[in-house]
Amino acid sequence: MLKPQPRPAPRPDVAGPPQNPRTVRRRAWLIAALIVAFMLVNYADKSVLGLAAVPIMDELHISNSTYGAISSSFALLFSLSGLVVGFVSARISSRVLLVAMAAVWAVAQLPVLFVASVPALVAGRVLLGAAEGPAAPMSMHALYKWFPQDRRGLPSALQISGAALGTLIAAPVVTWLISAFGWRSAFAALAATSVVWSLLWWRTGHDGPYGHEAAHGVASDSATAARLPYRRLLLNGTVLGSIAGAFGASWALTLSQAWLPAYLRTQLGMSPGGAAALISGVSAFSLVLLLAVSPLVDALNRRGVSSRWSNGAPQGVAVCIAGLAMAALSVADGRALLLTLITVAFGAHAITFPLHYMTTAAVVPPAQRGAVFGIVAATGTLPGLIAPYLTGRLLDSAPSTGTGYTHAFLLSAAVMLVCGLVALIAIRPERDARRLAPTD
User: Fold this and answer.
1) Which residues have CB under 8 Å from 430's CB, separation 6+?
2) How many CB atoms within 10 Å of residue 220?
3) Alpha-carbon span 155 to 290, nearest angstrom
4) Is 290 exposed, middle or buried (0-12, 13-18, 19+ CB in 10 A)?
5) CA–CA separation, 167 vs 173, rounded Å?
């Protein structure tokens, strides 16, 4: 007769099995709120350079290409750090990882407060990118530890909505700080905000009880610990399609963060406040889509609708619609139509981000989820390294700045349409989960 094995002592950063379902639910939504705040700060940090682009370029006398290179430097270590931390997440708790990231965000804002120069801006952006690369996948990984698989649509949407809120709230606040106290004040305020969030998360952000449940169709209760070769996980259609969708959406997102404020001011003649208001409007549109679509996805999943149509197809469709609006910017006539197209081009892709994590999670064992999330995020966010600098080069090489923006929008549209179609065709979670299921 086998002797019962002693249960391992719980780690101090893990919440343990749920004892009171109501208590667990309350704690789960508290964690979700903190992660929304985490993403809010994350996207405010990313957006501050774009919102301060005009005064920075004027004060430091830098060209569009140089500014584009500064903006792209953010992505120099972004993907690599997301990849590395994804693998590390199997050994280090989400509590520790997220605190470390937010603390580095605060440090990354400091160089320009002491020396306002191109090298200082580059140093700060590179460090910030290294710390923010893992932010979205690791915060989603932490969130999934508190919610079962069929209840993740709304929490996922809320996590991504932190990005929309980051722009919705940060754009007017940061613009006000820049106008009232100079652009350096915005960097200082964001550093302080990151420190406050770190302290709150360290006190509250323990790992949840759903970190080891079996992935749908991949592992059974008896094989939860089974691990699959990463080559098999990464080369199936669902993961590749999820990466493609994220790539197309990230191209538009990166372009909006780096160049949309400058475009609105220099090409449409908007004031700083007017540009900030429009950017907030785009974020509000994204937020409405996120909060409307993701609960619907959860309801469809619970009714047994194929994940290909409930989770996969909306990703491809959203990126394609945003790409078509981006292409139409080059021929739009009339200010109202132009502002509508800007809203759709830079806001409609938002639902791709929570859904591409959900489709990836559907085919990946939980023990490898953090690593695969890191890989998907690392490749899906590569536009951050390419789009800002390439746009700056197009602006400087075109006969006029307006023509340069037209070329940049058409290129972005082409990338987004290709990525959207790949996502629409390739994402099939049920099929790929069956193919990845371990065989006896």
Assistant:
1) 217, 306, 307, 308
2) 11
3) 10
4) buried
5) 10
CA distance linking residue 296 with residue 227, whole number of Å: 32
Q: State residue 5 phi and psi, 5-degree precision.
A: -85, 140
Element spanning 421, H or E: helix 401-426
Mind listing the pLDDT tens digit for each residue in 308-354? 888 889 999 999 999 999 999 988 888 899 999 999 999 999 889 88
The candidate with the shortest Cα–Cα distance to 32, out of 171, 199, 151, 194, is 151
pTM: 0.68
Q: Where are the domains of the chain?
A: 24-217+228-436
Question: How big is the chain, counted in residues?
Answer: 440
Nearest in space to 350 (alpha carbons), one of 412, 419, 288, 410: 288
Write phi, then psi, for 398 (nearest 5 degrees): -75, 155
Task: Provide the H-helix boundaries in 259-400.
Answer: 260-266, 272-302, 307, 313-328, 335-347, 352-361, 366-380, 383-397
Pull the structure tokens for residue 439.
């065989």
Helix axes 401-426, 237-258, angle to 10 degrees: 160
* CA distance linking residue 425 with residue 433, whole number of Å: 16
* Rounded CA separation 124/75 (Å): 12
Which of these, 40, 76, 48, lies nearest to 381 by C-alpha position?
Answer: 76
The fold adopted by the segment(s) 24-217+228-436 is Growth Hormone; Chain: A; (1.20.1250)
Give the count of beta carbons closer than 10 Å to the beta carbon of residue 181.
12
Alpha-carbon distance 315 to 351, whole Å?
Answer: 7
Tally the C-alpha atoms within 13 A of residue 201's C-alpha that lie toward its C-beta. 29
DSSP three-state, residue 270: coil
User: Which DSSP string do the residues of 22-83 spell out, in sequence order?
Assistant: HHHHHHHHHHHHHHHHHHHHHHHHHHHHHHTHHHHHHHHT--HHHHHHHHHHTTTTHHHHHH
| pLDDT per residue as tens digits for the range 255-311 | 988 899 889 998 999 988 888 889 888 988 988 888 888 778 777 877 888 888 888
